[in-house]
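Example record

Each entry pairs one chain with its bound ligand, fructose -6-phosphate.
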Amino acid sequence: MAEYMTPFTTMINLNTGVIPNAVVVQKRYLRDLEGLFADSIAEDALMIDNPLLYEVHEATENPMEEGQLRYSTTTIYPGKVGDEYFFTKGHYHAIGNRAELYMGLAGDGYLLLMSPDGEINVQHMTPGAMSYVPPFWAHRTINVGKENFVFFACYPSDAGYDYQSIADKGFAQIVVEQDGKPALVSNPKWVK
Ligand code: F6R
Ligand code: ZN
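Structure tokens for the complex follow.
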């Protein structure tokens, strides 16, 4: 007889992103993102306080095998390093052809995407926005508002994370505050 996995339900607080029974809560501080912000002087100055930039609540530890899904929430706190808004590290999926679905729950954010040949795409995420990360696109989320930016993510369990490519090259463009509004500008640190 085949063995079937038991179905289950996870509760998520849609305002805060808190998952009370999360299997992992990962907190990422500025030090964890060292070198990723464009303004190195501002980054160094803020490193003394080493603020919490975001946290990820993972709802499941479903097996990392083809056909399975995992899902999580991410809360990015408001703030900037120089003019650049707080963001997530950003990654390609280790298995590049794995897609992902994001849904905005609270606050105001941008989803910054980059194709492997350096094409940039930006999606504005507010509560209810369902944003699709197609296969192969690197993705980073950014809090461009004054409140917490919270979103839900669902992705293939075996997708994995390639952070190194982003650490090495960055994104071709970054999101900074200009005249009180978010603006997309070239990344001075971008390595083609
Ligand atoms: C999973 C995914 C999200 C992010 C999370 C934190 O594939 O895209 O759950 O992992 O938003 O961002 P990173 O992983 O870039 O620190
Ligand atoms: Zn992802």
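The chain has a mean pLDDT of 97.
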